[in-house]
Amino acid sequence: xxxxxxxxxxxxxxxVAPGVIAGLIPWLLTGWHAHAYPxxxxxxxxxxxxxxxxxxxxxxxxxxxEGVGTPAPVAPTERLVVGGLYRFVRNPxxxxxAAALVGQALLLGRPVLLVEAAAFGAAVVAFVxxxxxxxxxxxxxxxxxxxxxxxxxxWPRLGALSRRRS
Length: 166
Hints:
By secondary structure, this protein is mainly alpha-helical. It has helices at residues 3-30, 39-65, 92-108, 112-140, 142-150, 162-165. The protein contains six helices and no strands. The protein is globular and about 50 Å long.
């Protein structure tokens, strides 16, 4: 798969997966109608939402440029993606979607989106454990095992790969 095809596939997947989880479902649940919440909470929500979107876009870009593939299981990367934010945490894409959901909950003052974020988190952890990690282990072998040992899955750690490259 070339980078142009990976880019198109990634854009489609971005619209379908995160677009539904962090866009369509929150809209269906809230209609984007905000409730009165303290200003500081709403500002924190806006910052969290913006950070989630930026991290998500960065992660998708890494899949195209570094991995030469997409995040979609039907069109996986040719190479293991370990650069950019993937140096600090193995699952920045999932964390970004969760951050966007929590950010929307705070920005709109809608706790129902916290319930969606929790459900998303549970589903993602199960998906990663039962499908994604075994698939990456089969596809990339020792390279993935080394990466998995060096970089935490869910809690970003600065310098996570510095020990690996020393």
